[in-house]
Amino acid sequence: MLPADEMTDATPTAPPGAQRVVLAGPWRLRRGGELPSLTLAYETWGELNAARDNVVLIYTGLSPSSHAAATAAHPEAGWWEYVIGPGKPIDTRRWFVVCVNSLGSCFGSTGPASLDPRSGRPYRLRFPYLSVEDIAHAGWDVVRSLDIERLRVVIGASLGGMSALALAIEYPEAVDQLVTISAATHATPSAIALRSLQREIIRSDPAWRDGDYASGAGPVQGMRLARKLGLISYRSAEEWLIRFGRERVEPSPAAFDPQFQVEAYLDANAGKFAQHFDANCYLYLSRAMDDFDIAEHGGSAGAGLSRIQARRTLVVGVETDSLFPLYQQREIAEGLDELGREVEFVALPSLQGHDAFLVDTARYTPLLCDFFARA
Amino acid sequence: MLPADEMTDATPTAPPGAQRVVLAGPWRLRRGGELPSLTLAYETWGELNAARDNVVLIYTGLSPSSHAAATAAHPEAGWWEYVIGPGKPIDTRRWFVVCVNSLGSCFGSTGPASLDPRSGRPYRLRFPYLSVEDIAHAGWDVVRSLDIERLRVVIGASLGGMSALALAIEYPEAVDQLVTISAATHATPSAIALRSLQREIIRSDPAWRDGDYASGAGPVQGMRLARKLGLISYRSAEEWLIRFGRERVEPSPAAFDPQFQVEAYLDANAGKFAQHFDANCYLYLSRAMDDFDIAEHGGSAGAGLSRIQARRTLVVGVETDSLFPLYQQREIAEGLDELGREVEFVALPSLQGHDAFLVDTARYTPLLCDFFARA
Fold first, then answer.
1. Number of domains into which chain A is organized
2. Mutate to test the interface with A, among B198, B200, B252 (most CBs of A within 10 A)
3. Same domain as A136, residue A40
């Protein structure tokens, strides 16, 4: 096991106060290759009880860090602030909550942007081929490093929902209850097309340099453009019609500058994202989502689902989600139901598409309150 | 009036056998600026009758040339081959059909890629700001140059449908009957977001050089990527699910090469497009679609529609079209109906999204046959 200092990432950093665990290797990845060791950043909320049986593990989507909610060490609001805390849906007076920065990401966990201890240089494209199962496995290793042998609930949305499914399939004994939100047993061809195009946009930026960009000099413009495409796929046409309509911004004399509010919104959001997310990490995580297919676990989606032993499952989807469409949520729920598992399926009419779990607090708060109250 | 030879485009060419008309200027554009003269490429099918009252004008979408169907001079199939010809929906034994390459495009008509006769250099970004109304006006000028004073039918899909609407609003006396397919009275914020991103992708290609690329050395990669995004918006998730599923291609050793059939399809299609479409022309035409809003004609969409005097209108839309969604077709039809106009609204369940008019021959053939038989 290496000292954590030697594992310091090339550019990315963990959120202030995040804990890091260093796991000795060799740590083998699903599609080949191994890591000599790995560091994973995580944060926790609430207290582990004496029986060590009040644990909720949260897997994140593609882009967030472990900072799902404010902590004493880092009081800034997290990406799921309305969900985690005293009196909130995942009530930290009762639950011990763990959120892990995904393997392959860039906020304190080992990924393409971190140093390969064998060479002292960043992995970049020498990082092994990453799969969703590896992300699930790494998150589970973090929990086990805390001497926890079973999760009361594993929960995730988007990529996090895929990771939660992967954990429940590969480590069925670990999962007492499962919540998937806007997830899927595999990516649709449309979702693959969108993500493949995002990756090609990033790789087409000359600053990408086949992944060998210098720290702080990556393909910022490619990342901006890819993020804009991401935002288009994360939200819904219905929401933007109401939110932006055809409102214009101040006219600019420059040709082809943004003219409409919707363009200015994309600009502002994408600029922020491109400054802090590592491009190679994005490529690896994005491709992992395309590849994920639980049919690899037994030959069919049904066979994959049959490995899940969760006592109770909640499957949530959103009517306006075009990236992980509602019928994919129904497939998970109906698949489990046909296997005789206890499963609840909730279709939300939120306008915010794939991103609804982040912003539609009015619908998600009571839904998650109810689930966790009975967990 | 200048000899047509002096108007030869910098890179683009008209289809073989296309006719070109040169209009003396100054020709003023809607949003300011003027052209000293303009050339417009067009093709015709069938014979103009003695009364000169059997004329059908076709406006194209963003990317096609005037080559809507095979001609004696150019027997290669056109982009609407199944629609135009003897015994076809627009039966050329009866109709005299004219299709114009849009003003601002690059297949023989004046646009950013053609030479400014005042300087002898290509216009590029010195081309005046282009609007859909200018495209409609230029097409109408072609028809008038043939001593035709009234159209029996004007028809267009996508941008062509916007152009047909613009003509019917600005030259109501010119239009006896109107057909709009997958059109809109204005662009939605989602459509604006997609097109704005396409334009930014093109402009981010270093080979764009602020529009001053050398002939044949334009932003090919930017155009490839923009076209892929276009294709994603033109087709539907439902179609791709059936057509591609998760079929894979031969594995490639190169990192991030296409893995799925859907990626290979986008690659093949986009490569072809990027080789023959001029980037600056694309930017101008794309922006014109964002700007179009018939509310500019009288203060509201209803006021704009009220200018239309067509004796009969057919409005067609497709359930799976996310770029020009079906409710936008319904708005056109209901708006005309409320004004007491004779209008027929057809919602097709085609799987091919915005592109259905190009490929769903089984649904469009009888629909258009019926309309033109009674025209």
1. 2
2. B200
3. yes
The residue whose two tokens read 């994140």 is: A60
The domain in which residue B238 lies consists of 191-285
Give the ipTM: 0.95
**B211 lies in the same domain as B98:** no
Note whether A345 and A333 are within 8 A (CB): yes
Please give the share of chain A, as a percent, with pLDDT higher than 70.
97
Cβ within 8 Å, pair B188-A229: no
Judgement on whether residues A303 and A280 belong to the same structural domain of the protein = no
B291 contacts A256? CB cut-off 8 A = no
- In B29-58, which positions are buried (b, 16+ CB within 10 angstroms) versus exposed (e)? bbeeeebebbbbbbbbbbebeeeeebbbbb
Report, as an integer, the average pLDDT of B168-178. 98
List, as ranges, residues 57-116 from A with C-beta within 8 Å of B. none
d(CA A21, CA A40): 5
Please determine, for residue A11, whether its predicted confidence score (pLDDT) is greater than 50: no
Q: In the structure encoding, which two tokens stand for residue B191, read together?
A: 């459509």
- Answer whether B294's CB lies under 8 Å from B329's CB: no
- The CATH number assigned to the domain holding B343 equals 3.40.50.1820
Give yes or no: residues B203 and B262 share one domain.
Answer: yes
Kindly tell me if the per-residue pLDDT of A8 is higher than 60: no
Q: In angstroms, rounded to a whole number, what is the distance separating the alpha carbons of residues A91 and A375?
A: 11
- Say yes or no: B298 and B207 in one domain: no
Same domain, A73 and A152: yes
Q: Is the pLDDT of residue A285 over 80?
A: yes
Task: Give CA–CA dist B36/B7, Å, rounded.
Answer: 11
Is B18 a residue whose pLDDT tops 60?
yes
| CB within 8 Å: B197 and A225 | yes
Structure-token match 């396409």, residue found: B198
